Amino acid sequence: MTTAPAGTVRQVMSFRLRDRVRHWLDSEPVLAYLFMSPGWLILLLFMSYPFFLGIWISLTDRTVGLPSGEFVGLRNYTELFRDRTFHLTVINTFIYGFVTVPFKLFLGLLLALLLNQAFPMRNVLRAALLLPWIVPTALSSLAWLMLYDAVLSPFSWLLKNWGLIESNIAFLGTRTNAIISLCIANIWRGTPFFAVAILAGLQAVPQELHEAAAIEGANRVQRFFAVTLPVIKGIVVITTLFSIIWTFADFQLVYVLTKGGPANSTHIFGTYAWQIGIGGAGKLGIGAAISLYMFPVLAVLSAILLRYVRSQEA
Amino acid sequence: MVGSNRLSSRLVLLYLPLALFTIFLLFPFYWMLIISLKPNNLLLNMKINPLYLTQFTLDHYRYLLSNTDFPRWALNTAIVTFGATFLSLTSSILMGYALGRFRFRGGNVAGTAIFLAYLIPPTLLFIPLSQVVARFGLYNTYWALIFTYPTFLIPFASWLLMGYFRTIPRELEECAMIDGASRFQAMWRIILPLALPGVLSAGIFSFTLSWNEFLYALVFMGSGEMKTIPVGTVSDLIRADLFQWGPLMAAAMLGSVPVAIAYMFFVDQYVSGLTAGAVKG
User: Fold this and answer.
1) Is residue B141 scored above 90 in pLDDT?
2) Is the peptide bond before B28 cis (omega within 30 degrees of 0)?
3) Which of B91, B124, B274 minimises the CB distance to A291?
4) Residues of chain B with CATH 1.10.3720.10
5) Cα separation of A58 and A142, whole Å?
6) A14-23, A32-41, B15-24, B62-71 — which is least confidently predicted?
7) pLDDT of residue B280
8) For residue B85, what are the contacts with CB-CB under 8 A and spacing of at least 6?
9) Residue B10: pLDDT band with limits 50, 70, 90
10) What is the Cβ-side half-sphere exposure of residue B144, based on CA atoms within 13 angstroms?
11) If we measure between CA atoms, which residue out of B75, B72, B74 comes closest to residue B225?
12) Do residues B35 and B53 make contact, with C-beta atoms less than 8 angstroms apart?
């Protein structure tokens, strides 16, 4: 009897093993999980884990200096009920998140309809008018900070020059003024996003239908409601929901323009959570609770958005 | 007469509103530019019209580049941006490919989970995430941002790429595999080149979002040395309500230039990415 040289056996075995691995790697489910693993690993470590950790922290009195903290139940949440600044924060966030949206939608829709017409330099203008949306918000907010400055504001200068006001306007000096100023800056930043999304939707509007409606004697407004709106309805709803979610959970613009002032009267959830949790006393527990108060609203909006996206796909 | 009527109606219905929009949307940038170039003695003089530039100087830019940490912040921002974009793009291509092309149990659930992850805002997570970052020993290092930015980049980019991969016919891949290519080769050589516009969109988007990010950079990068441009400009150039408007606006200009350039070169990819994000989720 002759035995095969050990080297050959090893070769045969390694060949089979490689074959099996290759076969195994060609099966779709295995490959799918393999491909998804780097992404999911990052999301689990830096999104899911902190999310649940945040729920735990919000139930403790953990501070930056005392990283263990004791379990205090729902005390952080109930204490916020009695916090006057938190009441204002809730009101401000709803004003900021919901009241600005109709303006952004209306202006964005109008701009999209304008940009959808033929005129010279259309592409240049379309690119330029998207700038408020793409440059770093913290930096463009600095420009707004100066535009709203109590002394240097060019708005005040112009109005004074025209004889409309006597003294400078305190754009950020009172709660009402500051909230209006914040909303205007937010509308400025968000309008281009609506415009571009709706402009893309307008490409799908069939021109023949417009022409037919025009021949039938429909005017511009009638044609908009009968022909254009049904086609772009989906994109309008989805863009609006996205905008509400982002604005509701905003941070930068308020942080740069008012830091929540004057006298903590213009905070939104994000900036108040930062001030309590990180900036001031470092009360991580209460800060986490403030953030998590956003969750029910975000969950409802997300559920609506998800259902809507699904119904559009079907 | 009909012609002039048409012209005046176009003037009122198109050019006038467009002009108003242009003033509203671009005025802050115009302001940023003229303040960054205006000599200090004119800047604070409220007797003259502040809307024009009568003389200009580059002093504010010179000051910014030599007397502040701005160059270092720019380096930090660039490192973090490229790191986070590379990591996100690699993971998202694989993720998007798996979700868009493979049939497997749990595929729909994974797709929905990615969509929902896209809707979780940084303001919800930053406090516990600061603890996670500290526990992993990443606080005040580039890795703190390179690993956390992908949490909002991967969901978006994967969703975008999933849509792109789905538009490419399966047969192309199957043909390549019949010709002896492995699945990985088919993906690398056949499918990825066809999905290149999508990869470019996702890349540009990741680039701008990383460059612009503020909250995580503010919380996870404590020291002046490690700050990014937006955080450094806002927190270090404004000291105790003493505004140095010239250098501040110069920093805002310089910090906006890279995204503006990236965007101008790829405006169509950017817009298609934006709307894919808005339309498909």
Assistant:
1) yes
2) no
3) B124
4) 61-280
5) 33
6) A14-23
7) 43
8) B153, B203, B206, B207, B210
9) confident
10) 28
11) B72
12) no
- Residue B99, chain A, CB below 8 Å: the answer is yes
Q: What is the pLDDT of residues A100-129, one digit of tens each?
A: 999 999 999 999 999 999 898 888 898 899
What does the DSSP 8-state code read for residue A71?
Answer: B
State the residue for tokens 């330099």.
A121
Below-50 pLDDT ranges, chain A: 1-2
Q: Is A83 exposed, middle or buried (0-12, 13-18, 19+ CB in 10 A)?
A: middle
A90-266 fold: MetI-like fold (1.10.3720)
Interface test with B, best of A124, A134, A198, A253 (most B CBs within 10 A): A134
How many residues can be counted in chain B? 281
pLDDT at B273: 66
CB proximity B151 to A under 8 Å: yes
Structure tokens at A128: 């330029």
pLDDT in tens, A45-88: 999 999 999 999 999 999 987 777 889 999 999 999 999 999 99
Sign of CA dihedral B249, B250, B252, B256: positive
Measured distance CA(B54)–CA(B51) in Å, rounded: 10
Q: Where are the domains of chain A?
A: 90-266
Mutate to test the interface with A, among B60, B104, B127, B151 (most CBs of A within 10 A): B127
The whole-angstrom distance between residue B229's C-alpha and the CA centroid of its chain comes to: 13
B181 touches chain A (CB under 8 A): no
Residues 6 or more apart whose Cβ sits within 8 Å of residue B80: B142, B145, B146, B149, B210, B217, B228
- A74: which residues sit within 8 A by CB, 6+ positions away? A59
3-state secondary structure (DSSP) of residue B256: helix
pLDDT band at B281; cut points 50, 70, 90? very low
For residues B76 and B10, the model is more confident at: B76
The angle formed by the CA atoms of residues A293, A237 and B14, to the nearest 5 degrees, is 125
- Domain B61-280: assigned CATH number: 1.10.3720.10
Instruction: For the beta carbon of residue A38, count every other beta carbon within 10 angstroms.
Output: 17
Considering only residues B7 and B192, tell me which one the structure prediction assigns the higher pLDDT. Answer: B192
Asked whether the beta carbons of A80 and A293 are under 8 A apart, the reply is yes
* pLDDT, position A204: 83
